[in-house]
Amino acid sequence: MRLALRLAALTLLASACRHAPAGELSPDTRAARLLADIAYLADDRLEGRGTGTAGNDSAAAWLARRHAALGLRPLATDTARPGCLATPAPASCRSFLQRFTARGAELSHAGRPEGVPTQNVIALVPGRDPALAGEVVVIGAHFDHLGRSPASAMDPEAKDAIRNGADDNASGTAAALELARTFAARPARRSILIAHFTGEELGLLGSQWLVEHSPVATDSITAMINFDMVGRLRADHLIVYGTGTAAELPGILERANDGTGLRLSSVADGFGPSDHSSFYAKGIPVLHFFTDLHDDYHRATDDVERINVEGEARIVALAERVVRSIADAPARLTVRRAEAPVASMSAGQGSSVYLGTIPDMSAGDAPGLRLTGVRAGSPADVAGLRAGDVIVVLGGVAVKDLYSYSSALYAHQPGEKVSIGFLRAGQPHAVTVTLGRRGG
User: Fold this and answer.
1) 184 is in which domain, residue-wise?
2) CATH of the domain at 221
3) By C-alpha distance, which of 320, 301, 146, 278 is closest to 232?
4) Is 339 part of a structural domain of the chain?
5) CATH at residue 398
6) What average pLDDT does the segment 314-333 reach?
7) Is 333 within the bounds of a domain?
């Protein structure tokens, strides 16, 4: 009942504010739309949108319908339709759903090595400038959550309770959808690709699939803007990751934030536990908006009633200005390789040992741990490891998967020298690495 009253109040406010100046959206209108979208995605009927579940499929179908209603352009090829395996496939084969089978370490560990069928939802807002429309800014957010699974939950005692993930990440999904609506109404010079990822909670599986099977050339992607948990703004504090991944980004953020009242905490690193990592591993500048963890994270209490929708509307307004600055600029961003603030070499506890590798969680059944990237300046980077390498031995212990890799790594202490055997383009190599300390 409280949610219904809140929706009604915001709708009345939105109606009263429709006299806003042309091109300027009322904050109450935006907040009402965000709240309605979060409420749908975080409803018990979708049962937490776990990847490979009926609720996740329903959410994907709903997002596809929303994209169609906005007049966005479908990009994926529906290979299940007759006649759609031809190259190039006819336009009638285009779909908003990018179907794939999600496979990864966590699914294998849970007894599902065959994976689960699922889908991303992707669409394009064509750019208005013929000279720049071939370049793309990606706006993304994952729409999956834990469903009824206690495997990654912070409240395993709740067993198979529905974990609706209103903040994680119905909030980010709603933000991306609102920006899709905004740019469809007023396109930028460059094109905007709207990407709703599945499988993030299983290890960034959907975003990794997209960058490996991108419907646009990856070298045409000028930036990726990610939203993950943006619904719990407190004390006006917003965290933005990836500010060191392009030379222009700090200035763009500062100008866009002028007069908003938001207090930004900037983190230079482009890697992190969300979908922007998959793009940064391809050398694409990224920004990741995040309002920080809270006591309801990965719990059954992460419900829509706890969302600060007015705060999220402010974040979306900031993000729109950021995206327009990037998408309308005469030149592309100047890519930088940001160093992560980690890694001293002092001795300590094994649990704090740091190597700086970014595992590819969507890697297949071949033994070893494939890397999707390494952090700049990390021990792995100094030793010469890089994206695409497959670690097969660490400290004399065979590495078969993420779990055996973790066991082998955490058996050592910061400051120790360990040998690492790896494959690069199928050829064996070996290096010696001095391990660092996480957060040192």
Assistant:
1) 2-328
2) 3.40.630.10
3) 301
4) no
5) 2.30.42.10
6) 98
7) no
The answer to whether 242 touches 270, Cβ cutoff 8 Å, is yes
| Kind of pairing between the strands at 136-142 and 221-227 | parallel
pLDDT band at 19 (very low <50, low <70, confident <90, very high): very low
The helix or strand, by DSSP H or E, that contains position 403, with its residue range, turns out to be: helix 402-410
Share of the chain above pLDDT 70, in %: 90
Q: Which two tokens mark 67?
A: 């994209």
Write the pLDDT tens digit of every residue in 113-169.
Answer: 899 999 999 999 999 999 999 999 999 999 999 999 998 899 999 999 999 999 999
Residues forming beta bridges with residue 371, ordered by sequence position: 359
In DSSP terms, 354 is beta-bridged to 436
Domain count, the chain: 2
Interval 174-226: pLDDT, tens? 999 999 999 999 999 999 999 999 999 999 999 999 999 999 999 999 999 99
Q: In the predicted model, what is the mean pLDDT of residues 259-280?
A: 94
pTM, two decimals, is 0.86
> What is each CA distance from 199 to 50, 308, 323, in whole angstroms?
8, 25, 25
